[in-house]
Specification:
By secondary structure, the chain is of the alpha+beta class. The chain folds into two domains: about 100 residues, no CATH class; about 110 residues, no CATH class. It is about 30% helix and about 20% strand. The chain is built from eight helices and ten strands. The radius of gyration is 17 Å and the shape is globular. The two termini are about 25 Å apart.
Length: about 220
């Protein structure tokens, strides 16, 4: 199942990856799924750390570990901000609410099932096409002959080196959840290629459009938008 936003973009006929944050129709946190906001608000009745990495922080806020720093979520006002005061964009907010929605019905992450690409998720071969091509293609274009810069940007964004591709960077965006980016530079025979890798259990956490949104968040950390 995908959201209305995803269905509209899927039917848009645009075969190029686009920056979803540029859409005025879907750009503010308060525009996110109201049912997910309501679910997050109900979590305020819990106590302490009710899910690994997520806890109730006072009467009106939830706190979770997000890309290595605390993120505060205030469901009743539909706001989020990091410890440094940064307000997440729509794509990040979609992932955060999706994660809270999962946590509302579970006490831990699903077990690991092995690294895969997006196309190997259920329905992924047909979903991640056209306007839903993973933003890893933009990373390949930006760093086609600049693998070292790719690695430096990834490390500066909180990643660590990973043994994948010619240049690999691994991020932990939530405790127990990792996302890898593998880059192969272009040469005389082949164009540059970048691939996202993550554990298959992600399909238990999120619908495909939320996985796609997370891929956009990763790409933004490399400055491709």
């Amino acid at each position: 199942m995908v959201t209305r936003m995803a269905k509209e973009w899927l039917n848009a006929g645009d075969e190029r990856p686009t920056n979803p944050e540029a859409s005025r129709r879907y750009c503010r946190l308060e525009q996110l799924n109201p049912e997910w906001w309501a679910t997050a608000a109900r979590l305020l009745a819990r106590r302490g750390e009710f899910f690994p990495g997520i806890r109730v922080a006072g009467a009106a806020r939830l706190e979770l570990e997000w890309w290595g720093e605390p993120l505060l979520v205030e469901p009743r006002t539909r706001k989020m901000w990091t410890a440094a005061g940064r307000v997440p964009g729509y794509q990040e907010g979609l992932v955060v609410l999706g994660l809270l929605n999962y946590a509302a019905g579970h006490d831990r992450l699903p077990p690991e099932r092995g690294l895969v690409t997006a196309e190997h998720l259920r329905g992924g071969a047909t979903f991640f096409r056209g306007p839903h091509v993973m933003a890893s293609v933009l990373i390949a274009r930006r760093f086609a002959r600049r693998g070292r810069e790719f690695r430096q940007r990834g490390l500066a964004a909180g990643g660590r080196e990973a043994p994948y591709g010619e240049y690999g960077v691994e991020f932990t965006w939530f405790p127990g959840c990792r996302w890898l980016v593998a880059l192969w530079e272009e040469d005389e025979e082949f164009p540059a290629r970048a691939t996202y890798l993550f554990d298959r259990c992600l399909e238990e956490l999120f619908a495909l459009d939320v996985v796609w949104a997370l891929g956009n968040v990763v790409a933004a950390r490399f400055g491709v938008w």
